[in-house]
Amino acid sequence: MAETTGSPRETPRATGKFSGWLFAFLKWFWIAVLLAFVVGVLAGVVAAVVPGDFSNLMKNITGWVFGNFLTVGLIVVILALLTWIVYMGSRRATPAAAPVAPVTPTGPEVAIMNRPRIDIDNQPQITIKNDPRIEISSPGYAPSSPGAQPVVDERELERSYLRRMIEETEKLKLVGIPADLFTMFAPNVPLDEVFIPLQLFPKRHLKDYPFTVDEAVDYRERLQKGLLSEDMQRVLLGKEREWEEIVRRGDKLDIAGFWRQLNRREPTAVAQGYPGMGKSTLMARLTLHFARLGLGIDDPTMGDPLATGDTAPVPVLLLLKEYAAELKKAEARSRELSVLDYLQLDVERKGLPGLFGLLRRRLDEGRCLVILDGLDEVSDIEQRRQVKKAIESFVSTYRRGAGTAFNRFVITSRVAGYDVVAFERYSHFTLAELTKEQIDNFLPRWCHASARCSARPGATPESIERSAIEMERSLQTAIATQPGVRKLAEIPLLLTLLAVMRQNKIELPRQRIDLYKLVTKTLLEDRNIAKDLQPIPEAQAIERLGPIAFDMQERGNNFAQQWEVKAKLTAIVKQQGGTPLEIQGEVESFLARIRERGGLFVIRTGDYFGFFHRTFQEYFVARYLLNQVSLNPDLWIPRIVEYAREKGDTWREPFLLAVAYQSGENVIIARKIIAQLLEAQPEVTPYDVRPLDLVLAAECVVEAKPASIGAGLEGQIARHLLHMYEQVQRRADFEVCDNIERVIRDW
Predict the structure, then answer these.
(1) Which of 48, 70, 365, 711 has CA 20 to 30 A from 735's CA?
(2) Spatial CB neighbours of 337, under 8 Å, sequence gap ≥ 6
(3) pLDDT tens figures, 487-505
């Protein structure tokens, strides 16, 4: 097509111009002949009524024409033939409409539309106005006419979009971690350097469930009403736990295995996980990976590429919370807003003209990965159902592309907040907790990345390396020596929180209570604020969940039946006043908020509630005990000590956490609790103090705020430890010796 402006076209163009001039001349000639005939007729009429010389002149002219009729006729035929020849010549000089051969531009930009009409001007740019339409222009061309559309290079537009997606996902986003923990390094940590390759396990089919569907419905209804005997409840709970273990023992999939599950027959998957498991981070990493593949950029930290450059899908990442907000605005204007409509709104914010048309063509071709992130963040249940319906319609429309190509779709949601609008036709996967190997793999990468990004100007590579090694060693020690910290480290968000705290010089695990307070505040308040959701005040959660945690701890259980939970909450909320209907509404609302937005207290299995980790249950028990102490210390301090003495390991952690928390709130109460623990019990031990009590008191000093217990009480505990160590050695009580040695090392 570039040759259309070259020299081979010059001769036809000159011939065309001459033919045009000649045809114009003949056209005017025939007009003159026609006018002459008309004038002749009029002259005859005039001659009939006007005598004189004029009449004689007209008679002579008319007589000559009719007297030489053959000559005049021959002249007319020759002129008519000449006119036809000139007309045909001018037709050949102007190309007729014809099918357009495929164009492969080398350099100029191309945009294709529809409608088969071709206009070619004589300018250096050639515009073929079609639909499909081909527009060719030099790079950077912008039309001068006010309403004209800019010419778009489709491939360059796609590359610009992929670069934009890389910019949006290449840095780690620490959503919900308290702002006062951020340092200058946080916004600069590359996601691919610290990303943990998560694993997922597929949910088993309901045919593997221990009960039939009818049995499960019947049992749950009776359980919710409190109509099952205790023996039957234990059987039901045991079966539910077996089912949960079957699911968790199933084969886990790595990211590549998960990707292979998205096939032409089942191109849609729902990825679920508990709060902080890394659902959104995984989706960001997939987006980054495919954007890099589309640009031909290596992505070695992801392992083997999930696709080749030619087959890599174009990633489209949509946040369902934002879609729900736009949907609400549209409903206020009595308009509908499909997922495709929202996609158009979303891409317009990126400032890339023509991007929506490009993405729609890629959808039609079956070349996209569409990620719909955060169904649980759509807080209104009815609106969540609308979003679900819109997603199903979108998937149904675009699941198949051209030929054998197909689009892929991934929907993410927390486990809580999803069950009421389950996508029963889609494959489901649940994110697995981190293994020790994954944790060990994450720590050095995080420490090196954060040490490098937070290094002061001029820092040497050696000093950065030393800082990273020191940080990693501290974290490894905390995780290895403290079971509570180790359990929290299985959750990617909380493992990252541990690393951020260490980056901020917060020691672990000596200030373990601060860690639990921070985690609780993060899950209940900070993450909700970061996501523009209503936070759950920690004090309210402690007030309402503390008594439930205490009852569960007393029974030595990690589960509570749904009807029990609601009954306990109803009694607590009732104290605040309100009508029965208002109280019931607040109970249901609080349970929904704490499940879906807090993630601390969730449906663990079947119709049984439980804390996400036992650590949180123990923390809430400790807070409940301290609330009771504040109301009646004379009654509750001896009772707390009694729990710690008589119920062994079940109450050891709540006791330690209670003293540690109180050491930062009311040191007098903390000291009274320890003093009560150190009182002699001659009837049960030959020692001045029972060995387990003394070790527990020493552990309280380790867990408490520095210097909060007081030098006098700390000295008393130290002297007792040394004296007892001598006694137990004489008695060869080596288990007590080991416990004393351990606590002295920690002290």
Answers:
(1) 711
(2) 323, 326, 327, 330, 331, 390
(3) 778 778 778 877 877 776 6
